[in-house]
Design a protein that fits this description.
Shape: elongated
Structural class: alpha+beta
Strand order of the largest sheet: 1-2
Strand content: 5-15%
Radius of gyration: 37 Å
Number of helices: 3
Helix content: 25-40%
Distance between the termini: 116 Å
């Protein structure tokens, strides 16, 4: 007859040992290593065979399989339910939504504007994410502002303003590839307005550009 263990796993009959010499107690079995560190810390239902108490647990709750991609015997990816991931484990990316209207189809691209004031300069940046309509609206506003005010400094004329215009052009292409905006309930996307080249303020840039061409032409003429 076998004696069932408190954890539901039967053990075989206890081995018998020959009696010792007269007056000596019977031989006792040698001390065996304990399968569990303390009484009551045996395997819990749902854990596979080979689980040893005192070792880092690979399962968050009894009966749960290990998370895909995490080998057994490794520490928890999460300390307790409701706690964030531990250092070294990647966090799940948050869903991207337009900051203007809440549309789920959005891209996280910043839009820039630049202003040159003789020896002073100002830089403006509006971070995303933006959907198609909101992104194109912001690009048109910031680009028009740059075309109007971005040329009134020598460094801005040759460096920062062209860089800003190219940056906004790339952002405009990314926003144009998105599907039509689907705003969240109760919200509306920004009005895109007319294109940049149909806005009168965009042509203020012709004044400093004409001045720059006149200066370069004069330098070349006098040099010749």
């Amino acid at each position: 007859m076998t004696t069932p263990s408190p954890h539901g796993q039967p053990y075989g009959p206890a081995p018998t040992y020959p009696a010792g010499p007269a007056g000596q107690p019977a031989m006792q079995p040698a001390a065996q290593p304990q399968a569990y560190a303390q009484p009551g810390q045996g395997p819990v239902a749902g854990y596979p065979a080979g689980y040893v108490a005192g070792q880092p647990q690979a399962y968050a709750q009894p009966g749960h399989a290990p998370a895909p991609g995490y080998p057994a015997g490794q520490p928890h990816a999460y300390a307790h339910p409701g706690h964030g991931p531990m250092a070294g484990y990647p966090a799940q990316p948050a869903p991207t939504q337009c900051r203007g209207c809440g549309s789920p189809a959005a891209v996280n691209v910043a839009v820039r504007a630049h202003q040159g004031l003789l020896i002073m300069m100002r830089f403006h940046k509006l971070d995303g994410p933006f959907c198609r309509s909101c992104g194109r609206s912001v690009v048109r506003q910031m680009t028009t502002r740059t075309l109007c005010l971005g040329w009134w400094s020598p460094i801005s004329l040759v460096a920062f303003t062209p860089f800003t215009l190219i940056w906004n052009l790339v952002a405009h292409l990314k926003f144009s590839k998105l599907p039509p905006s689907t705003p969240a309930p109760g919200r509306q996307p920004m009005d895109e307005g007319v294109p940049v080249l149909r806005r009168p303020l965009a042509y203020v840039a012709l004044i400093p550009l004409a001045w720059a061409v006149w200066v370069v032409t004069g330098v070349i003429t006098h040099s010749g």
